[in-house]
Amino acid sequence: MRAHDAQKNELKPWLQKQWVIPPLANAEFVCAMEDVLEVYTRPYDPARPVVCLDELNKQLVAEIQTPLPVESGQPARFDFQYERCGTANLFMTSEPLVGQRAITVTAQRTAVDFAQVVRDLLEVRYPHAEKVVLVMDNLNTHKPAALYHAFEPAVARALINRLEIHHTPKHGSWLNMAEIELSVLSRQCLDRRIAHLDTLTQEVAAWEQARNANTQAVNWRFTTPDARIKLKRLYPSIQNS
Which of 27, 89, 175, 229 could, after both became Cys, cross-link 109 (CB 3.0–4.6 A)? Predict the structure, then answer.
């Protein structure tokens, strides 16, 4: 898997740290993997945009003592003690073929929060799309049923009818391009102590604006033929009678 040349350095830490070992000879895994890989080969279609969704938990942390001021030749210095201020959740949606992403910060991670993000995706970001092709993992809240927790049945059903959902396989989250974006966000914006939800929201919004202005479309090159050769061990052996 590769992205555009300008993004290669950003991907290296994700490739090194986020790898998980999928199960061997597992038909369920390879079926879901090939399904997602097929989606990634589709040409850009504004009527059916491909959007990847993932989410990340962030610990909110406040300083107990004021950090020492930055000096020439000295890195920033912080006291090891800190105050826990709760947690926040970040929903990442990215459209790889146009190189754009959006982050929604919430106070918690519930089915209702997920449903609100999906509604915003459909009604605000892609109001004219016939369907949004949504790639995401198998997190327990990442289900169409979540929309029935948040909205009246007629609204939930209308939203679901505008979705084409593809789940990455278990142990295959590396197939979700939104996870790459979360890795970059974590290193460029979240790798420090942030105490308050409002501050986190502002910092993430600034990062989103800057990244959307300076990144290009992702050129995903790992295909099903590649998988059948390089990941042959994941495919079940066919027993001919």
Answer: 89
